[in-house]
Specification:
Blueprint lengths: L1 E9 L2 H28 L4 H14 L4 H23 L9 H7 L11 E3 L4 E4 L4 E6 L2 E9 L2 H10 E10 L2 E9 L11 E6 L3 E5 L4 E3 L1 H20 L2 H9 L3 H23 L3 E5 L4 H4 L4 H8 L3 H15 L3 E4 L24 E3 L6 E3 H21 L8
Parallel strand pairs: 8-11, 11-12
Antiparallel strand pairs: 1-5, 1-7, 2-6, 3-4, 4-5, 6-7, 8-9, 9-10, 13-14
Length: 385
């Protein structure tokens, strides 16, 4: 399985200038290549290389840097086309769809640039990297990361690494091919109910309350509004410094929750059943204040964290249809909208059982997970007469 390891670079002043100039130059060239691709309708890498490679080389880019710049442009148009086809820019012909489709892809001056082993080498013992730049090869650029990150890089790094600059800080994102543990046969399933009031509730009894995260988001939202209304130079500087702070905080919480869920499943030799919540933002019909909460809810990220941690540990994982799990009694299976008294309370109109609503839903998800796993294990070969 593929994992991405991020390490922080610690360049000196000369190295930092060279790295910043490299990103700026290659992205300027990428914008020119993108313009050619858009004007001539070129989407294949081979076709685009015939039109642009010689010019990139003549402008001073190295052979590998030119190749990666062309490939980056092709990948960007492939992603754009996939998003258009998937409806991520609205219906075909809509204003947003036409705006995305009617102009070339543009790269930011600090957009990521891929490097392969010919133009980037790692010295793990010394804690440095050597990288190609427009100012020549820069050697002995220090990097920092945890002991586990360095161990993963040393043992499993494979393929390209991306150089990224964020607010004057440089990072390398390296792809690692980590072996996947052998999946065991689960003794049962732990159902995971995802929500806003409670970020995750499991059928095994674990509950991650969302009150703290929601309070943090509300504080960040109010502070952004105040700084934006003020509009001074100092306010803009503070807004820039706080960018992605909420995102990093939510990602950290999701890592903690997903690790606890997977560890519990591994300890009990259980599988994990997750809700398939694809398209929930499009399906949900909510009032405007509720939309902000829903669209800032990082349920997909939490699900992806649980998935990759489960795969790495060999824990079986299935996705199930979440329909009516909050209205169905986990004991007698009676389905009634009135069973859900309020956000936290479930009272079955059939058998009278009283339970926490999210815990009841997680038990239904666990049962569906067992059914889905059994169906996947059933033989599809016709019985012999």
């Amino acid at each position: 399985m593929k994992l991405v390891v991020r390490v922080k670079l610690l360049p000196d002043a000369r190295q930092a200038v060279a790295l910043a100039a490299t990103l700026r130059v290659v992205n300027e060239h990428a914008n020119r290549v993108s313009q050619v691709a858009f004007e001539h309708g070129l989407r294949r890498e081979y076709q685009l290389r015939k039109h642009t490679y010689a010019g990139l080389k003549a402008s001073g880019l190295g052979a590998q840097a030119a190749q990666h710049t062309i490939k980056k442009v092709c990948d960007a148009y492939t992603t754009l086309r996939a998003n258009l086809n998937a409806g991520n820019y609205g219906e075909p012909g809509s204003k947003r769809w036409r705006k995305a489709e009617s102009k070339p892809v543009v790269f930011r001056p600090d957009a990521a640039q891929p490097f392969d082993d010919r133009c980037l080498s790692w010295q793990y013992d010394a804690g440095t990297v050597s990288i190609w730049t427009v100012a020549g090869r820069m050697r002995d650029i220090a990097f920092t990361g945890s002991a586990e990150q360095v161990k993963t890089l040393r043992e499993y790094r494979k393929g390209e690494s991306d150089l990224i600059e964020r607010e004057g800080v440089f990072y390398l994102y390296a792809v690692c091919e980590v072996p996947q543990a052998e999946q065991y046969e689960p003794a049962g399933f732990i159902g995971v109910d995802l929500g806003i009031a409670n970020i995750a509730t499991t059928s095994s009894g674990y509950r991650a309350a969302g009150r703290g995260l929601n309070r943090h988001r509300k504080r960040q939202q109010d502070l952004r509004a105040k700084l934006q209304a003020k509009g001074t130079k100092s306010a803009r500087r503070r807004l820039k410094a706080r960018r992605r702070k909420e995102q990093r905080h939510a990602a950290n919480i999701n890592h903690i929750i997903s690790k606890k869920v997977v560890t519990e499943a591994e300890r009990t030799s259980s599988g994990i059943a997750l809700e398939d919540l694809g398209g929930i933002r499009e399906r949900g019909r909510l009032r405007k204040p509720q939309r902000v909460t829903l669209h800032s809810w990082a349920f997909h990220q939490l699900g992806s964290f649980v998935e990759y941690k489960a795969r790495r540990a060999g824990v079986p994982l299935v996705y199930v249809d979440p329909a009516y799990t909050s209205q169905t009694c986990a004991d007698c299976h009676h389905v009634d909208r009135a069973n859900r008294v309020d956000q936290a309370t479930f009272i079955c109109r059939g058998c009278g059982v009283v339970a926490h609503a999210d815990r009841n839903a997680s038990r239904n998800i666990a049962a569906r997970g067992e059914t889905a796993w059994a169906a996947g294990r059933e033989s599809r070969v016709p019985a012999t007469g």
